[in-house]
């Protein structure tokens, strides 16, 4: 359906570029007047803006895909590895002057995604016939901004995207206040959605304009954010988790919040996948000598548990070059993960007689499946929800047992592999594969609380890589501490051999928004990789 929608909106998407690049940054007075004029014909603009912000949030370049999601978050949690210390800095906790790696998520969110979303909110607020457009945009605003605050901490929120109101140096809100407002927004928006009223229709690339689906997504996001507070404020965490469950979270894979893609053009393809296939990742032209490899931590765990997702995730280089060679080159026993602590020179201390061609022995992300140009962008999955419900049950906050929800989460992810191209070549029978895995690796319901948390959130970690939602995996790892990762200690790293806890604020904030930037670091702590954000407590 989305392929049809995108073709239908092709000309409209061209107009979006004009709106986002020219009109919005310049705070065009004509647009502002339209915002104030109740008789202005705004609905086509609203639909186009919503389509645009969805596509931008999924990614249209490096800024919010390869840089923060893979080179940073995906490297911190040891999905990726590289011998190239300059290009894949997150593997070794380096900065290397790579400002774009640090700034991309922030700049993309505030300069485009949020501006478009805020325009929708401004245009629809108070209009009874646009109650769904208004409240869906509020939910989407939370989706955009919770990722940013989770990576940086305190940030502009209440005054963000307020250029039309003359606010060009927004204050930084405390993350505790941001979370309180995001949860309020989700609750109010979910309750206000009305299935009898118009919505975005085909302009909604996530749920086709279905208010009931957005309500489910709102409560599922509430579950995610509620769980984020388990260490910093257990009472509020319990309150919001219970509210989310009562409101109605995802019940099946049909509820997944995602954007589907085609490989037809740069507008439509999955940009995370696209960037992983460039010179910075695993381009077929490199013939196994590309910069990016899969980490030994990930590969070793999947092999040790005989996880059926291993060939879905990984292949040797020939499997990426030729689909006809995928099955044989993705065989689990052939996979080999690259340790993160080495570069092109020091790897010779690990492997005698090292030469560059030996890079081919290490596994790459499978660009015919999870990193295919047509792989969906998953904002939140049913599998994730079930793992969070497993923890809720373990804490006594939800119904069912942790074991039941854990198994549902695992099965959900195996079944969702069918959403990806060529998955059947490496997981021909996902239902059987899931049953066999759970029989061989049973959930231990009599274990300690900590051990059950380890089981749940190690599976969460494995699942998030399959959905390329590495930013969420990094957030969940910081909250739970699972899996227990052994950090690298590469010479000259920025953290003393400790895994990063956040990204730094963009340098432009210190230069252009100095007063508010200084207030933020006074409140939160030094603008360093190891400074813990509000909810990230030891």
Automatic annotation (TrEMBL):
Stored InterPro entries: SusD-like_2, TPR-like_helical_dom_sf
Keyword Cell inner membrane: no
Superkingdom assignment: Bacteria
Keyword check for Signal: yes
Keywords: Signal
Signal sequence coordinates: 1-28
Protein name per UniProt: Starch-binding associating with outer membrane
């Amino acid at each position: 359906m989305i392929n049809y929608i995108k073709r239908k909106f092709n000309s409209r998407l061209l107009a979006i570029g004009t709106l986002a690049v020219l009109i919005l940054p310049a705070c065009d007075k004509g647009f502002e007047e339209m915002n104030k004029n109740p008789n202005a014909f705004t609905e086509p603009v609203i639909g186009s803006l919503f389509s645009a912000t969805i596509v931008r949030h999924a990614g249209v370049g490096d800024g919010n895909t390869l840089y923060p999601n893979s080179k940073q978050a995906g490297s911190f949690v040891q999905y990726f590895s590289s011998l190239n210390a300059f290009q894949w800095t997150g593997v070794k906790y380096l900065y290397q002057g790579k400002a774009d790696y640090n700034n991309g998520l922030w700049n993309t969110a505030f300069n485009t995604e949020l501006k478009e979303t805020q325009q929708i909110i401004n245009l629809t607020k108070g209009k009874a016939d646009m109650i769904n457009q208004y409240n869906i945009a509020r939910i989407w605003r939370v989706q955009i901004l919770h990722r940013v605050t989770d990576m940086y901490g305190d940030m502009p929120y209440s005054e963000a995207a307020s250029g039309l109101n003359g606010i060009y140096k927004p204050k930084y809100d405390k993350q505790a206040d941001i979370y309180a407002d995001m949860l309020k927004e989700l609750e109010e928006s979910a309750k206000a959605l009305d299935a009898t009223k118009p919505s975005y229709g085909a302009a909604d690339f996530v749920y086709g304009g279905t208010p009931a689906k957005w309500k489910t997504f709102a409560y599922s996001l509430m579950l995610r954010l509620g769980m984020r507070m388990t260490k910093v404020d257990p009472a509020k965490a319990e309150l919001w988790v219970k509210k989310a469950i009562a409101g109605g979270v995802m019940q099946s894979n049909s509820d997944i919040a995602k954007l589907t893609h085609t490989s037809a053009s740069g507008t439509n393809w999955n940009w995370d996948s696209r960037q992983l296939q460039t010179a910075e990742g695993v381009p077929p032209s490199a013939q196994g000598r590309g910069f990016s490899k899969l980490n030994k931590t990930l590969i070793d765990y999947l092999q040790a548990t005989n996880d059926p997702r291993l060939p879905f995730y990984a292949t040797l280089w020939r499997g990426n070059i030729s689909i006809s060679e995928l099955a044989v080159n993705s065989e689990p026993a052939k996979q080999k993960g690259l340790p993160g602590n080495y570069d092109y020179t020091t790897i010779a201390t690990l492997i005698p007689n090292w030469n560059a061609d030996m890079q081919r022995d290490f596994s790459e992300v499978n660009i015919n499946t999870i990193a295919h140009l047509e792989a969906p962008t998953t904002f939140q999955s049913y599998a994730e929800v079930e793992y969070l419900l497993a923890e809720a049950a373990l804490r006594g906050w939800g119904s069912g047992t942790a074991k039941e929800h854990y198994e549902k989460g695992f099965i959900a992810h195996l079944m969702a592999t069918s959403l990806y191209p060529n998955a059947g070549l490496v997981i021909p029978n996902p239902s059987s594969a899931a049953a066999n895995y759970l029989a061989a690796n049973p959930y231990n319901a009599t274990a300690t609380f900590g051990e059950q948390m380890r089981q749940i959130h190690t599976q969460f970690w494995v699942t998030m890589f399959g959905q390329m939602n590495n930013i969420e995996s990094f957030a969940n790892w910081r909250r739970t501490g699972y899996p227990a990762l052994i950090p690298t200690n590469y010479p000259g790293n920025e953290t003393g051999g400790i895994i990063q806890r956040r990204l730094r604020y963009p340098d432009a904030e210190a230069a252009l928004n100095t007063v508010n930037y200084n207030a933020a670091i006074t409140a939160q702590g030094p603008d360093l990789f190891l400074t813990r954000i509000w909810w990230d407590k030891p």
